[in-house]
Prior knowledge:
Layout: H1 3-42, H2 45-78, H3 81-115, H4 122-151, E1 156-159, E2 162-165, H5 168-172, H6 175-205, H7 210-245, H8 247-254, E3 260-261, E4 265-272, E5 277-285, H9 288-294, E6 300-301, H10 315-344, H11 352-360, H12 363-378, E7 383-385, E8 389-390, H13 391-394, H14 401-432, H15 436-444
Antiparallel strand pairs: 1-2, 3-6, 4-5, 7-8
Helix pairs in contact: 1-2, 1-4, 1-6, 1-14, 2-3, 2-7, 2-14, 3-4, 4-6, 6-7, 6-11, 6-12, 7-8, 7-10, 8-10, 10-12
Amino acid sequence: MDALMLSRIQFAVTAGFHFIFVPLTLGLVVLIAFMQTVYVRTGDRDYLRMTKFWGKLFLINFAIGVVTGITLEFQFGMNWAEYSKYVGDIFGAPLAIEATVAFFLESVFLGIWIFGWKKVSKRVHLFSIWMVALGSNLSALWILIANGWMQHPVGYTLTNGRAELTDFTAVILSPYAWLKFFHTVTSGWVIGAFFVMGVSAYHLMKKNEIAVFKKSIKVAAIFGLFSSLAVAGIGDFHAAEVAKTQPSKFAAMESIWETKEGAPVVLFAVPDVENERNSIEIGSIPKLASFMAFKEWNAEVTGLRDIPVKDRPPVTPVFIGFRLMVFLGGLFIILAAAVIYYSRKNSVENKTWLLRTLLYCIPLPYIAAQLGWIVAEVGRQPWIVYGLMRTEDGVSMNITPQQVAMSLAGFFIFYGTLMIIDFYLLFKFSKKGPEKEIHRTIEAV
């Protein structure tokens, strides 16, 4: 393989590993902030124990996730120097704001939250965790504004062979970027919710700390249902934005080869790219693709045949990835609703089939999130900046395949080790449950 393909694989590996940790941080911190809010307002000691238990798991994930994110930005200079030189004036601004504003806000208040127990007032301590939640999600916002510009470049002009920023407001208010932000962040909330539900389900099956984990699973289920519905609703708007700004990606998502009015949604098929048709097609919903794209049943949707071959993305991973993501999203809605239903009946701890399903489903929201990135990033190909710069033109000129292969192997070992450590620590402390010393300390007070 050449340096271009190896660099693409390397960035995909490092970004994919990093995104294992990020979404849990986004979702779990919101749940922790809510739990602590309930404790401060009501004095319910179960919510204090919940806050500290889930807070420990959050800190483990956060610490390792920060390490995995640092190396990503170095690749823009090492592997993608031509890209950085071409669009660095625009792409670098949101990333700089993320580091100097959002991450700084998150880190400062996280320190207060970690070390401020019984050293600051309850309300100040509560305020700090909400600031951590705000900072975490603001970090995602600025990163996704940068990525959104790559997907739909706006507010720039080409001068002396470089893209230069002319309208920063257009960049930060890009509808594509904001839809991508809300879609990504709410998917992280789903991951946080199902992580809490899965761990709670394990303890409920073991009849361990039933009062604490019944409250945890109910709170997480409500949050998970809201987040899953939000992902679906925002995803619908996002699909329409994709159809407008990236017709090649939308055509690949639906495997639409012929430009037509009233384009259907094929429920499932194995796209035959060589012959440019769907093979083994299983069912379709008439006119739904047109409605998804333009909110008109008979709207015309551009087919892949009317897009030059050199500008088409890989169809199979985008088409299948999109359908699997949607299927999993529907499953999450059903499971969260089931937990809420049985929680209201005060019988969720007796539904072994549901608890076991939730435990086994912990990885599924992670998979759905990764599928979403596959659809977004593979569907953008062959462009590194859609319609402006091809991926092949962004790679560093003087880098060799041997150099990239060595760094790829190093990254893979490094990230793999961190992932094993993270999973081990999360498993260890999740299985252990809330510290008994906390309960005795509370009772003594």
